TrEMBL record, chains A, B:
UniProt similarity note: Belongs to the SLC41A transporter family.
Gene source species: Sorangium cellulosum (strain So ce56) (Polyangium cellulosum (strain So ce56))
Role noted for this protein: Acts as a magnesium transporter.
The keyword Ion transport is assigned to this record: no
Entry-linked InterPro entries: CBS_dom (IPR000644), CBS_dom_sf (IPR046342), Mg_transptr_MgtE_intracell_dom (IPR006668), MgtE_N_sf (IPR038076), MgtE_transporter (IPR006669), SLC41_membr_dom (IPR006667), SLC41_membr_dom_sf (IPR036739)
NCBIfam families: mgtE
Presence of keyword Magnesium: yes
Record field: transmembrane: 365-383, 389-415, 427-450
Protein name, UniProt field: Magnesium transporter MgtE
Residue stretches making up the CBS domain: 140-203, 204-260
Length: 461, 461
């Protein structure tokens, strides 16, 4: 998609030096998203010039779509006085996100300038800033259409015509009481399909699905995706209408939360920007702690192996199978954990289901363990390590797959039960635990099936 | 979300036996999604009775939302004659998906019954069935509003009123020529905000973003999320309007593709249904092949360790560090691969960027490797394994993290270059390759730093 923006850079640079007044016409036909990409490709001084050449209401939707870092750089480059009119034209939710992301001193100056330019916009920011960024309150906008109940369909359509320009969505109209309580909702579709003289009360839906401002943004996204909602109202505890969440913001949340989950599974802290926009030190900060925690967790494997010093000294062959066995435990564990973590995320699996999850996973583990045992025993036999090893590896594989599936499936549920995020916390725990338990299982079983060999070799050594 | 449905089951069961005619009134105020959950909780015979008690246009939106397995069971339970009127009321895209999913014989009978009941609906199915399920063509609907260009704004709104009942979205109106070529698009919002007497040609946008029917559904979803489109037209090569993709279908695609990516990273084949709806043997089929491939790949570690038989026999301490070292290689590799796979999926990273990716990953690997080396050397020193081991482990950690990051970052790009799906294929390759290379690095470095110890012990043994 960057193609559109890349292709425009030379022409825009030329106009900037020769005739900036023409920029507005050139950019008029281009989608704001492509213009945001274009701004990202220019250096800060050029980008500032482009935004200044546009009217504030043209610049605002482009500015909204820039990533946080570019926005901050441009606020600094253009100065609070020049940026304030653009900020006042931004959607209320994006405006709040911007002001919250700026360093305290800059955001203070910007907010007080905004209070002079557009007091209503400043008030909206103060209202929306109350809620955490990743909650329904942080996602909602106050730019919606609301009406009283004593109107006809024609009145409401007239009202949409009057205020629709500034609203983020006009496809739903919210009916509120004099005190701001939500009474009902009506879609523009239903309004258009109804007779103009019909009463609003007769076409609206009273049973409105709503969320509280504290609801987690991922839950909001999943609810809207499940029910195919284009907009979702946010209500206070006493059912006052606080704002509306629109589907476009939710699609970004879905993508963002999914990126985070993937990164967590890969043991990387959540990274907000795209790969090439993320700085070197951000990557180190997101990777080093996880890598170090996993590393220190794995020290345990060294501790445990030292407990089998005697066995490893007398039968070196035992060491050859360690990586094969512990990786198998890890793989079966990560299969189970990825299924359960995803199930928890989309709401298919709940903590209370742990018993039925355990039964299912153990059932699968028996079959999977049998398959791997057969393949593994055949391989050991071909290596010629003798019957003792054939039996040891076969039994260990069975035990390790059972253990891997149990740990992989139960640990995410346990972590969720303890109020922790299963995607974040499962990986390091499962990795170390499964490796350590795998080694313990292996040497315990080896002592059993290889008792003769160990005794002989010990005596001979 | 299942709570709503669960709470209704007893009441619905009671009405089914006592007074099925009242069902329609009871279910009228419930969201179709919750009703679909309810149907899923009933047995097939009960579910069939509920659907029969409703009018076809009430039953269709519920039936649309059922998963494939339940739909098929209900077609069998209710019979083609009873289901056809419901199928005729379904959205064209869902109707097509259903008929494509049914066994050939049933779908043939259903389609010929549909041709009698509603020939237009049958024709739409034949049109949409041309395209693969996971392409734009498989996602689009033919239930959209299109008009000719010689109309006024008021005419178009009148037209929406007339045909809007059956359209999947009325928020965009497509302007087409007599031959079906797309000329432009206008949003209902722009129509409402314009003066009723204005000409359509003056309010429409000619520069319409569109996709071809072959476009992959994931690309469609990302495009719509990026540009905040609520609907996206699908055009043939000669720009004829074939259909429209709406945002609600795309949100499902985002979730579905994400689940698949997560499952692939966890080495599980893509699973379509939710955890508890997926059968035992489906899980085995999705898990066993991957587990077996990974297992056989790990045989290599055994082969490589056997090459260092002498070293392992004379210095058993060497074996204690194997799990620690190879897991560190695996962790740094999976950090890099999860970043790159996600970057490829969302379009941030392209195959052509491999050189700059390599530079970034190597730079990060140096810092990460240094951090782990320092921690690791301290631990070895505390274990009291001697200077030779302190140096060996320090150097090996550095080498292994460099190798892990390189393999983890480059392999997904190479696989994509070869036309393979990086999410599917990376995991097993990276796991085995990093383990094997890690062991090779470890023993090669050990031979260097532990030469004296190995010679002494060898002579002494």
């Amino acid at each position: 998609m960057l193609r559109v923006a890349l292709a425009m850079v030379p022409e825009v640079r030329q106009l900037l030096t020769e005739d900036p007044a023409q920029l507005s016409d050139l950019l008029d036909e281009i989608h704001d998203e492509d213009l945001a990409d274009l701004i990202g490709l220019l250096d800060d001084a050029e980008a500032a010039k482009v935004l200044m050449a546009l009217r504030a209401e043209e610049a605002a939707p482009i500015f909204e779509r820039l990533d946080g870092e570019t926005q901050e750089a441009l606020v600094e480059q253009m100065g609070v006085e020049s940026i304030a009119p653009i900020v006042s034209e931004m959607a209320a939710d994006d405006r709040t996100d911007l002001i919250e992301a700026l360093p305290d001193q800059v955001s203070g100056t910007l907010l007080s300038t905004l209070e002079k330019v557009d007091p209503e916009a400043a008030a909206e920011v103060e209202e929306l800033a109350k809620w955490p960024e990743d909650s329904a309150g942080g996602l909602m906008t106050t730019d919606y259409v609301s009406v009283g109940i004593h109107l006809t369909v024609a009145d409401v359509i007239e009202r949409i015509r009057a205020v629709g320009e500034d609203a983020e969505t006009i496809y739903y109209v919210y009916i509120v009481s004099d005190r701001g309580h939500l009474i009902g909702v009506v879609s523009l579709r239903d309004l258009l399909l109804a007779s103009p003289s019909e009463k609003l009360a007769d076409v609206m839906t009273e049973n409105v699905f709503a969320v509280s401002p504290e609801t987690d943004q991922e839950e909001v996204a999943r609810t809207m995706a499940k029910y195919d909602f284009n907009a979702l109202p946010v209500l206070s505890a006493d059912r006052k209408l606080l704002g509306v969440i629109t589907v476009d913001d939710v699609m970004d949340v879905l993508t963002e939360e999914q990126s985070e989950d993937m990164q967590r599974l890969g043991a990387v802290g959540p990274i907000e920007d795209s790969y090439f926009k993320t700085s070197f030190w951000t990557f180190i900060q997101k990777r080093a702690p996880w890598l170090a925690v996993l590393f220190v967790g794995e020290f345990m494997t060294g501790e445990v192996l030292r407990r089998f010093e005697h066995e490893l000294e007398v039968v070196a062959t035992l060491a050859y199978y360690v990586p094969l066995l512990i990786s198998t435990g890890g793989n079966s564990g990560s299969q189970s954990s990825s299924l359960i973590i995803r199930g928890l995320a989309v709401g298919d699996v709940r903590v209370g289901d742990w018993a039925s999850v355990l039964v299912r996973e153990l059932g699968q583990a028996v079959v999977l363990g049998l398959i791997l045992s057969v393949i593994g025993m055949l391989r050991v036999w071909l290596w010629g390590d003798g019957t003792g090893f054939v039996l040891t590896i076969g039994a260990t594989l069975m035990a390790i797959v059972l253990m891997g599936c149990t740990v992989g499936a139960m640990l995410p549920l346990l972590l969720r039960r303890l109020g922790l995020d299963p995607a974040t916390s499962s990986t390091p725990f499962i990795a170390s635990l499964v490796d350590v338990l795998g080694i313990l299982l292996y040497f315990t079983i080896a002592r059993l099936f290889l008792a003769d060999l160990l005794a002989q070799a010990g005596a001979g050594g």
